């Protein structure tokens, strides 16, 4: 019964005839930037979940997406990052960070998952996918099968897998970045299987949100869709031209992960733009803010130094101020909420 009730949530409850999708990029502690933008939107327009049929998120964006869908205020998510971030990513001194980066190359993941698991459990407690107030879509990678694995709400008859799954389990699975955090083991219908960060294939999950609408358009009951995509803060990583072309893994260090997730997010942006131009739909992408050279030194996926936290807060506030009154954003928050149909 729970899954059947949940199957109706968010579908057709919005007065707008267009299916509204929110997508949130991955990026570790840099997710604070995205959370601040959403906090400001929520202060202006009300609870985020009331305005979207589907919320997608990968890695840190997956944690944010699950929290919003569960009705947790965006302000609490910002507090989660500012309060818990320094405990989850404790290595602030550059020398110590380099040592632990070397450890992650040779021996163990850079961090244990103890602090992350404790913080996530505190946020989600015993909430399950079936308890969400709107639909969710959260990418991860099943390394046991070697395939992408997308956790999603059981909102149409063919989806019967994830309704009883704990949100805390999904949050850990989608954010288990290789070399940073341990692999996550979950029980599935196929037995115990292991998962890592969905950012390996979908750091920007926008394309999967659009695909979800197109694949299930008949069941969804909307004619068209609108997609609002929120970037995390990009580090602006570039690699100077060098004569040393045979660069070893240690030579790449964290630059490799940064380049991978940022370039993947940008590539997905262009894929979605092409899809919109070819097949219709509406698309708004709130980009990463620009960083100065000095700011770039303080922004990394796992850098939770107080000065880094402050940059993320400031950049999120500035970007939200730039976008909050734009007509293309306001169309997502036109107060045709689920409460309006009650």
TrEMBL record:
Gene3D superfamilies: Cytosolic phospholipase A2 catalytic domain. Keywords: Hydrolase, Lipid degradation, Lipid metabolism. A motif (GXSXG) lies at residues 57-61. A motif (DGA/G) lies at residues 197-199. A motif (GXGXXG) lies at residues 26-31. CDD domains: Pat17_PNPLA8_PNPLA9_like. The active site is at 59 (nucleophile), 197 (proton acceptor). It comes from the Bacteria. Residues 22-210 form the PNPLA domain. InterPro entries: Acyl_Trfase/lysoPLipase, PNPLA_dom. Belongs to the patatin family. This is PNPLA domain-containing protein. It comes from Paenibacillus xylanexedens. The lineage of its organism: Bacteria, Bacillati, Bacillota, Bacilli, Bacillales.
